[in-house]
Amino acid sequence: MSSDTPGEVECRALPNDKPVRHDLRHVYDGAQLYKSIRQYVPAELQSDTLYAAPSLEQEQNAKAIKKRRRERQKEDAETNIEDKTPSNQSDA
Which of 3, 7, 19, 20 could form a disulfide with 25 if both were Cys (CB 3.0 to 4.6 A apart)? Predict the structure, then answer.
């Protein structure tokens, strides 16, 4: 991580591979900022647009993202269960 790009790292699987850049900084959506963080922001700063209530579109986008994430996690969990079940092998 260099000082000119804080929060970003470059990774390589092998020394001669092309580096892949990853941004490790956390991204907050408007709904999460308003619900979770705004209550801890000093009163004089709460009027900042960063902490404003999310628009209907932002809320719908956040809900859609959460729904897709839950579905993907459920599919991954089902896949892991299927991988761990012993296969029925008959002795011949």
Answer: 7
Angle, CA of 71, 34 and 61, to the nearest 5° = 35
For the segment 13-21, the average pLDDT, to the nearest whole number, is: 90
Query: Nearest to residue 61, comparing CAs of 83, 87, 30, 18?
Result: 30
Number of alpha helices (DSSP H) and beta strands (DSSP E) in the chain: 2, 2
pLDDT, tens digit, 9 for 90 and up, residues 48-59 = 888 888 889 988
Give the Cα separation of 22 and 10 in Å (integer).
6
Distance CA 92, CA 19 (A): 51
Q: Are 65 and 73 in contact, with CB atoms under 8 Å apart? A: no
* Sequence-distant (≥ 6) Cβ neighbours of residue 46 within 8 angstroms: 38
* Nearest-angstrom CA–CA distance, 41 and 44: 8
